[in-house]
Amino acid sequence: MLRLDHLAVSARSLDEGVAAIEAALGVTMAGGGQHPAMGTHNRLLSLGDLYLEVIAVDPAAPAPGRPRWFDLDRFTGPPRLTTWIAATEDKEAALAAGPPGWGAPMALARGDYRWQMAVPEDGRLPFDGTCPALIQWHGSLHPAAALPDRGLRLNRLTVTHPEAAALRARLRLEDPRLHFAAGPPGLAAVIDTPGGPVALP
Asked: Do residues 88 and 76 lie in contact, with contact meaning Cβ atoms separated by under 8 Å?
């Protein structure tokens, strides 16, 4: 079985993305760092059992020599929710059951965290980017547990695609916060905050 792990907001620059999320949710982001293998960097925010990351190309990092994850090489426009990430305890079984083109596992690390993520060869996730990225953490450490709790929680994540039913059938993931709907490809999330529910930009 898969489980919701985190959400990713892409941005043209990390500062722009962080400013947009902090303004929308009324909190300060924490944590994060660099991903040298992908030439990206991020900042994080606790959602209780999950977390939210803002991610962008790191202008100080060398180009990775391959397409970056989350299709960041083609990202334009204002910061917005572009990717959701699902965790597995058995990446081989998950990839075998999942959609074609989900990606090949890459071993990654940042600080004390170790994980593998399936990264598509062209950086673009199946189902027009609405399929979750697949992650398998190694060890007991997880960013969500280390982040300060700002009282934010995921209320709802809606995955929209013309073939939403087919995507759902490919994923062994049941979560009351997760919903699939037929329509143009896209993601929408509502976050519960101390001041009320907020739709992510």
From this structure: no
The Cα–Cα gap between 1 and 191 comes to 24
How much is the pLDDT for 139? Answer: 87
63-109 pLDDT, tens digit each: 999 999 999 999 999 999 999 999 999 999 999 999 999 999 999 88
Query: Concatenated DSSP letters for 38-83?
Result: TTEEEEEEEETTEEEEEEEE-TTSPP-SSPPGGGGGG--SS-EEEE
Is 201's pLDDT higher than 80?
Answer: no
The total of other beta-carbon atoms located within 10 Å of residue 113's CB is 15
pLDDT in tens, 1-16: 899 999 999 999 999 9
- Residues 192, 153: contact at Cβ < 8 Å? yes
Dist CA 115 CA 51 (whole Å): 16
CA 116 centroid distance within chain = 14
Nearest to 91 by CA among 145, 52, 133: 133
Measured over the CA atoms of residue 90, residue 94, residue 97 and residue 102, the dihedral's sign is: negative
